[in-house]
């Protein structure tokens, strides 16, 4: 049985969330957001809260603090006061209070040692559409790619901690420069159905030569070439499942394709510490026979 289409309310609330994420530096008024949603301003708050589980004011603050947390963790050269002002706070003190209230760490504590598992608990509210929206899927020939990789073994909530180590290795060695190399993520199972101790995720960057021994545990690997279905996901990595499941649930059976014995993998076109979350671009590859 075919799934129903995405409802108008799903689309309208999602449109507001996208507008907020694209305009974090602007003044986001009730009138503007209710117009974006095409809801009466008298009902907008209730509809938004019903779909997201929080008020629009809280959603805006969380979106700004989320961006700030990535700045703190991955842009060490940026001063905390600059991050606070970008997040819409008038002073570092107000920013610090809001940040600690949200993440149980001060900005300086988070910068020194981010507690990613605690951080993840604040962002499990993303909207799940109640229907299916048509997406564009292409078939490509992926070329065999030599990569440097670091294996993350354990809780998926600590993947960003492992990614931070890989970023540091890249900066120290220059063997897989972010600007000129490709960056991949390879999940070997679904984090929603795998126990934390069995979860594996490889963080990878393309390389030209083998990786020498190092203190980070980065080693040489390879992503095999072959036919792949590829779908371009735009926006938050929290919603990657929507695109992945579309390929498995809708596209594969409709096109009589079968999957190859290799995990799906992600090619990150840009990064959360470089662009706002709404501007993220990720190509999802599903290996085909």
Automatic annotation (TrEMBL):
PANTHER family assigned to the protein according to its UniProt record, in alphabetical order: TRANSCRIPTIONAL REGULATOR YGIV-RELATED
PROSITE patterns attached to this UniProt entry: HTH_ARAC_FAMILY_1 (PS00041), HTH_ARAC_FAMILY_2 (PS01124)
Keyword annotations from UniProtKB, A to Z: DNA-binding, Transcription, Transcription regulation
The protein's name: AraC family transcriptional regulator
SUPFAM superfamilies, alphabetized: Homeodomain-like, Probable bacterial effector-binding domain
Domain HTH araC/xylS-type: 14-113
One Pfam family, short name: HTH_18
């Amino acid at each position: 049985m075919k799934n129903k289409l995405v409802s108008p309310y799903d689309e309208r609330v999602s449109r507001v969330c996208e507008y907020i994420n694209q305009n974090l530096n602007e003044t986001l008024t009730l009138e503007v957001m209710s117009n974006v949603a095409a809801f009466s301003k008298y009902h907008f708050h209730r509809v938004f809260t019903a779909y997201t589980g929080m008020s629009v004011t809280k959603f805006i603050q969380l979106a700004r603090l989320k961006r700030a947390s990535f700045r703190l963790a991955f842009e060490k050269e940026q001063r905390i006061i600059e991050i606070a002002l970008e997040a819409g706070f008038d002073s570092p003190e107000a920013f610090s209070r809001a940040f600690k209230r949200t993440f149980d760490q001060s900005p300086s504590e988070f910068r020194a040692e981010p507690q990613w598992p605690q951080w993840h608990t604040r962002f499990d509210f993303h909207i799940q559409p109640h229907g299916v929206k048509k997406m564009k899927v292409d078939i490509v020939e992926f070329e065999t790619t030599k990569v440097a990789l670091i294996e993350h073994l354990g809780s998926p909530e600590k993947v960003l901690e492992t990614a931070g180590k890989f970023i540091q290795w890249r900066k120290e060695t220059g063997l897989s420069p972010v600007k000129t190399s490709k960056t991949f993520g390879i999940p070997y199972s679904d984090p929603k159905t795998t126990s934390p101790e069995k979860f594996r995720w490889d963080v990878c960057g393309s390389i030209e030569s083998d990786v020498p021994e190092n203190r980070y545990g980065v080693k040489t690997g390879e992503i095999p070439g072959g036919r792949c279905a590829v779908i371009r996901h735009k926006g938050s990595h929290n919603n990657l499942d929507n695109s992945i499941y579309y390929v498995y649930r809708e596209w594969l059976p409709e096109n009589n394709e079968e999957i190859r014995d290799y995990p799906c993998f992600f090619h990150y076109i840009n990064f959360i510490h470089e662009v706002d979350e709404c501007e993220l671009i990720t190509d999802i590859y599903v290996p085909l026979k």
